[in-house]
Amino acid sequence: MPAQSVTNSGPQPCTEYSHQVEGYVVDLDGCAAGGGLPGQWIPEDAPQVDAGEPPAPAEAPEPIVITAEDLKRLPIDPGGLTLQPAVGSVLVNVETIAMSGAGQQQFSTTILGTPVLVRVVPVDYTWDFGDGATLVTTDPGAPYPDHTVAHVYRAVADQRQVTLTTRWAGEFQVDGGAWQPVDGLATTSEVSAPFAVREARTALVADR
């Protein structure tokens, strides 16, 4: 029985990467990268398959920022306003000493599952002594005899009160990162208990 030849009707092997026979060219992507059958022949005028646009990258989450409005909502402790002498009256033409116990404070919260720290520090103090006189300092004051904030009342009065307004600057830290400044300030106010301004009187007494 004579030998029979076998014709392979399947895809032709890809032996060259720029081969053209009777209007057919080799699909280089299929040959080189396995994107189709090895050696597959594709007509020159075959329609191109649109693989579609690549998916858009996911949008980065909005950065967490603490604003001045956030700062103003914090329960900042004013620190306490203290006057010396600490009695119900002070003397005309004698220094009345004032001081604040304000200091740095820190708060923690969680925003969108991320830990956030906020810290505030006092930056200046406005003292209103109730007789029309005001004083702005960056010093919180200190007790006698090292006092740095004081006022002298020049007239008697049945009632006076001191009002202290403190402004606070803030910084915030997101998930242990670098500290970032808050754009804006917060304020706190406190008022002393009312007191009288008295005139000191002298009196002669007999020697004993």
TrEMBL record:
> What lineage does the source organism belong to?
Bacteria, Bacillati, Actinomycetota, Actinomycetes, Micrococcales
Which residue ranges does the record assign to the PKD domain?
A: 122-153
The protein's name is: PKD domain-containing protein
- Which residues lie within the region annotated Disordered? 36-59
Query: Mind telling me which residue stretches traverse the membrane in this protein?
Result: none
What InterPro entries does the database record attribute to this sequence? Ig-like_fold (IPR013783), PKD_dom (IPR000601)
